[in-house]
Amino acid sequence: MLTRLLAFMDLMTALVLFSLSHTSERVFIILAWVCVCYVLFKGLIFLRSFASIIDLFSIPFIILAIFSSYSIITYLFVIWFLQKSILSFIS
Questions:
Q1: What whole-number distance in Å separates Cα of residue 47 and Cα of residue 78?
Q2: Structurally, how many domains does the chain consist of?
Q3: What is the 3-state secondary structure (H, E, C) of the chain?
Q4: N or C: which end of the chain has fewer CB within 10 A?
């Protein structure tokens, strides 16, 4: 149950991060801040995991995306969160 919840939140993070590059609506900005808090909280709880360290490394890029600054690394983090959520749903 917890794995599915975390997978759903990773999927939401990927979709919100991707949506920020196409629109700057207030709803997506608020959801992005929620995703930053989620990734920070989850990253600190599971700090010994390699995936959590990468999650923590993604936080500055999510914040930059909130302020309309994108790079190829931002899209790599979208792919990262998507593959994490898909693999979590499968397992």
A1: 20
A2: 1
A3: CHHHHHHHHHHHHHHHHHHHCCCCCHHHHHHHHHHHHHHHHHHHHCCCCHHHHHHHHHHHHHHHHHCCCCCHHHHHHHHHHHHHHHHHHHC
A4: N
C-alpha distances out from residue 82 to 16, 26, 47, Å: 11, 23, 20
Q: Kindly compute the dihedral angle of the four CA atoms of residues 61, 2, 31, 50, in this order, to the nearest 10 degrees.
A: 0
- For residue 15, the enclosing domain spans 2-90
Report which of 71, 14, 76, 73 is spatially closest to residue 39, judged by C-alpha positions: 14
The whole-model pTM stands at: 0.90
Please check whether residue 52 is in contact with residue 72, taking contact to mean a CB–CB distance below 8 angstroms. Answer: no
- 68: tokens are 């309309």
Distances (CA, A) of 72 to 60, 69, 86: 14, 11, 21
